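Whiteboard transcription, Tuesday session. T.W. wrote the structure tokens on the left side:
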């Protein structure tokens, strides 16, 4: 038996919303009993794009994180009070029965991911079904993954070592994360490349007409560690260190021949724009 899941490669997501629209196209106005009733025209986001903005000033980045039902191995949406209406199939897909869950608004709040939406007209809680009606019909993928133009969503069988999804999880093992894993829900949806903080800035020479300097050496070292990362400023005098640990003190040093270096310490409670580092001539 397969065990289905999705891997979201956040680094590949451009926030185009094709997945969101594909979900709407599949479910609005379409009943797929016994696993789902039609999605209403408005108000539901069975797959939603969370925008994560980080940095300040001119060094701002936006990442998009698609969030949907995580089809948890230990789903908090299934409780002793609703086990008749919500169930987990042997292939790992968690289903809210659209008939047995009528009137059960309490189920909406049982999901810690905010993945369940209330259908006022039908009086039922609803969410992503991992396009189970398609899979049960022999399809090999789900609508959101099928329509993603960048390959940011990969659907497949987590128990098949030869599937694309399993190979991807092995290849990127050091970057794989589960969303809110501390809750013990054990999601079947996995994330690659959840954004980490960056430190960026620019180097300027105090005595030059030009605002910026290309080729200045900038180093970064986590306090208490020996490893030093070195970059050169680009044409605009900009530098950037990506993928840093959160809540860590880093020492940054900017150097350019004939000028006094500048050193400063920055804490990554979030991405940081250290602004202009102005080097004075010797
Ligand atoms: S994400 Fe929420 S709705 Fe989906 S299985 Fe987990 S707890 Fe249930
Ligand atoms: S379709 Fe793919 S690239 Fe576009 S928003 Fe969805 S996951 Fe991101």
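and on the right, the sequence the group agreed on:
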């Amino acid at each position: 038996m397969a065990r289905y899941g999705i891997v979201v490669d956040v680094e590949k997501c451009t926030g185009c919303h094709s997945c969101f629209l594909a979900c709407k196209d599949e479910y609005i106005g379409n009943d797929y009993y016994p696993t789902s009733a039609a999605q209403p025209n408005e108000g539901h986001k069975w797959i939603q794009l969370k925008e994560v903005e980080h940095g300040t000033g001119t060094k701002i980045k936006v990442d998009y994180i698609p969030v949907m039902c995580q089809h948890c191995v230990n789903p908090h949406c299934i409780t002793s009070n609703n086990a008749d209406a919500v169930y987990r199939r042997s292939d790992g897909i968690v289903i809210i029965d659209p008939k047995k869950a009528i009137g059960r608004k309490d189920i909406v709040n049982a999901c810690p991911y905010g993945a369940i939406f209330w259908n006022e007209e039908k009086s039922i809680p609803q969410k992503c079904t991992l396009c189970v009606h398609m899979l049960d019909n022999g399809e090999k993928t789900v609508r959101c993954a099928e329509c993603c133009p960048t390959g940011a969503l990969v659907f497949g069988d987590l128990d098949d070592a030869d599937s694309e999804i399993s190979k991807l999880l092995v290849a990127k093992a050091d970057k794989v994360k589960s969303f809110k894993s501390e809750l013990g829900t054990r999601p079947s949806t996995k994330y690659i490349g959840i954004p980490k903080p960056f430190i960026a800035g620019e180097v300027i020479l105090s005595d030059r007409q030009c605002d910026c300097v290309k080729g200045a050496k900038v180093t970064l070292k986590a306090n208490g560690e020996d490893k030093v990362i070195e970059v050169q400023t680009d044409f605009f005098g900009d530098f950037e260190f990506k993928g840093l640990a959160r809540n860590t003190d880093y020492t940054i040093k900017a150097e350019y021949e004939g000028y006094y270096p500048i050193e400063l310490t920055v804490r990554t409670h979030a991405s940081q724009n250290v602004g202009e580092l102005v080097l004075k001539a010797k």
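Someone added at the bottom: The mean pLDDT is 94.
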